[in-house]
Amino acid sequence: MSPRWDPNPKVRRGRHVVYNLHAHLVFLTKYRRDVFNDEMLTRCAEIMRGVCTDFGADLIEFNGEEDHVHLLVLYPPKVALSSLVNSLKGVSSRYLRAEFTSRVDRATMHGRFWSGSYFAGSCGGAPLQMVKDYIENQKRPT
């Protein structure tokens, strides 16, 4: 018996769902302080990869500069993106502040590591206009 379609490794499957949800996330350090060096970025990626695994998500790509980081995350539909973001920021903040005390000046950052805001953008799949056209051209019930 052959499957109805060829398995696509980019599409994940759950018990009652087929999904391909990607989010581009950007986190800024508090007051855009230049905190990160290469060692901290490597450690931050490790921490965030572990948090993603705990949520059943995958950290596909990670990179950053002195004052911000970019993440590309594949996450399951049962995960609220805001909950994942809160854990990513909270856990990484605790570990990075504890492990890199010489680089993170708690006084100038007022006890915080990350800015309270973040960027989240959905990405992947077909362009928006293509999806809109597809839906618009579906057969209407008679």
Description:
A hairpin with a 4-residue loop joins strand 1 and strand 2. The protein has a single domain (about 15-135), classed as Transposase IS200-like (Alpha-Beta Plaits, 2-Layer Sandwich), CATH 3.30.70. The mean pLDDT is about 90. The protein has about 140 residues and is an alpha+beta fold. It has a 4-stranded antiparallel sheet, with helices on one face. The chain has a two-stranded antiparallel sheet with strand order 1-2. It contains 3 helices and 6 strands. This is IS200/IS605 family transposase. InterPro entries: Transposase_17, Transposase_17_sf. It holds the Pfam family Y1_Tnp.
Keywords:
four-stranded antiparallel sheet, two-stranded antiparallel ribbon, about 140 residues, alpha+beta, Alpha-Beta Plaits, 3 helices, single chain
